[in-house]
Design brief:
- It is a single chain.
- With 168 residues, the protein is an all-alpha fold.
- The protein is built from seven helices and no strands.
- Helix 6 runs antiparallel to helix 7.
């Protein structure tokens, strides 16, 4: 937080600079800068920039030989495995509550994997094709085309999941 009357650098610390120092621009005296952007848009561009730490002079966190991207990959993989395991246990619980005979966990895992990979991919591709057909082929407004595609995908996905619960 900047207090009125104090210089920005003294209040925020040595790593923060003001807008003029960061971009190398002159003071913003008028409504438009020399290059045609307003002060607000230049500030927004700096604040929303992914390279904000590098602009201010300190290195980004986890910037040791790609550890950030590696850890992100590992974290995403572990989250995917945990989600799949949770899906299998929810599927088994729903089948048990409906009174179906208990099956081997490997069979349930294969059913969930088939649903997650094959069925949902097919539904997604068909519904994206439907959206493109509605929007570009028939001239339906974008909002309506996307809405219809999402509704078709949700209804079709629910029906396939209900069918998977009934079968086997």
């Amino acid at each position: 937080m900047v207090v009125i009357g104090e210089q920005r650098n003294k209040k925020m610390g040595k790593h923060h600079t003001n807008l003029e120092q960061t971009r190398g621009a002159s003071a913003c005296n008028g409504p438009l800068r020399i290059n045609g952007t307003s002060c607000l848009s230049a500030t927004f561009a700096i604040v929303t920039s992914s390279s904000w730490p590098a602009v201010c002079g300190w290195p980004p966190k986890n910037h040791r030989k790609g550890i950030s991207s590696t850890m992100s990959l590992v974290t995403d993989f572990l989250a995917g495995v945990a989600e799949f395991v949770a899906d299998v246990f929810v599927f088994r619980r729903q089948r048990q509550q409906r009174g179906h005979a208990e099956r081997d966990i490997a069979d349930d895992a294969m059913a969930v994997a088939h649903f997650d990979v094959i069925t949902l991919l097919w539904i997604g591709l068909v519904c994206v094709g439907l959206m493109f057909l509605l929007i570009f082929g028939l001239g339906v407004p974008v909002g309506w085309g996307v809405g219809m595609g999402v509704v078709v995908a949700a209804v079709w996905g629910y029906r396939k999941y209900a069918q998977m619960l009934r079968d086997a």
